[in-house]
Amino acid sequence: MLKKVAILANGGDVSGFNAVIRGIVKTAEKNNIECYGIIDGYRGLLKNEYVELSSAENASGILHKGGSIIGSSLNANVFNYKVEENGKVEYKDLSDICIKNAKEAGFDCIFTLGGDSTQKSARDFFVRGLNVIGVPKTIDNDVACTDITFGYNTAVSVAMEAIDRLHSTAETHHRIMVLEVMGRYAGWIALESAIAGGADIALIPEIPYDIEGAANIIKERQAIGKNFSIVVVAEGAFPKGGSLTVKNTRDGGAGVINTQLGGVGDKVAKDLEELTGLTARNTTLGYMQRGGTPTAYDRVLSTKYGAKAMELALDGKFGVLTVIQNGKLGYVQLEDVVGNNKEIGAVSGNTEESNIRKVTMDHDLVKTAKNIGIYLGE
Fold first, then answer.
1. Residues with active-site annotation
2. Domains and CATH numbers, the chain
3. d(Cα 307, Cα 311) in Å, to the nearest integer?
4. Which of 20, 60, 63, 282 has the most crowded Cβ, counting Cβ within 10 A?
C-alpha cells in the first residue's frame, strides 16, 4: 500500500504546475497518503531537498497561481551531471544518488511533471527501479502520446492577446507586425494563436518557409487595400535551404539543450520589409507565454491530470504517463513516450530516436488555417 509520495516539477515553468500539485495533494490526502514536494526538480532529488505538502497549509490557495511552489530545474540531467572537482569540470552519472535518496525517504512513487526531457529521465529512473508516474507539461505541446499538455492553452491565450493588440498598431500605421512565439521543434502555439488571432501568415518549424511567398501574400493584401499584415513565427521556424536562428550556445554537456533559439522574428521582419516596402516590426513574446494565471481550461486540465496521476498510483500503475487521447483521460507506458530514444541518459533533442509530437500536415489545425487563407510558408 502507498504511504508516501513525492512530486517533482521539472523544465521551464508553465501556468498549471500548481494546479497539478494541488490535484495530486488533495487526492493523496483523501486516501490518507503523505505527499511531499521535491525542491527544484531533478536537482532537488539529487540534493535530497524536499518539503511536506498540505492542502491546509502550503498547498492551499495555489490553483490560480503561475509557476511552481516547489520550484523547477532546467537542464539538470542527473544521468550526465556537471561536477567541478579540483578546478576541473567533469560530467558524471549521479542517478544512483537520486535513487538512494528517494528510497531512503520512503517515497513509494514520484510524480514527474514535465516535458519530453523530463519524461525521458522518468523512464530511465523507472528502468532503474523507481516507481514513477509522469504528467505531460510544456507550452510547446510536443509531448508524445497525448492530445494536449498542461500550460499550452494559457500560452496560446497570451499569444492571441498579443496578436489582438498588434492588430491595432499594424492597421493604424500600415505596418507588418511580426510576433515571435515559442516553439522549438513544434509549431502548435504559432499555428493555433494565428487562427485565434486572425493572423495572415504563420511560420512553423514543420514547414521550412519561402519568404518570397510570404511577401507575395502581403502584396496581394496591399492590392485589395489592406496595407497591413500580421505574421506569427515560431522560434524554431527556418527558411527553405536555411537553418535555425540561434541566439546563444553553451556547453551544458550531453543530454540537454545547449542552443538558445531566438531572432527569427527579427529576421523575418527585416526580410519582409525589404521585399514589400512596408515597415515591419517584430515583437518577441518570450517568457510572457510561460508566466501568470492559468486559463480556466488549464486549471481544469491540470487538476484532472493531477487527480488521475494519483489514481494511477493507487492502482499500482507505474512507469506510465497520464494522457488525454480523443478527449478521455488515460495513460500510456513511458516506453511508448520516449519511442526509440532508449539510451539511458540521452534525455533531450530533436533526433530520429526522439518521439516529439509535431504538427502534421493532415491535422485539423493545418486544414483550418489553409481554408481561411493563412499562409503557412509553403
1. 140
2. 4-150+294-338 (3.40.50.450), 155-290+361-371 (3.40.50.460)
3. 6
4. 20
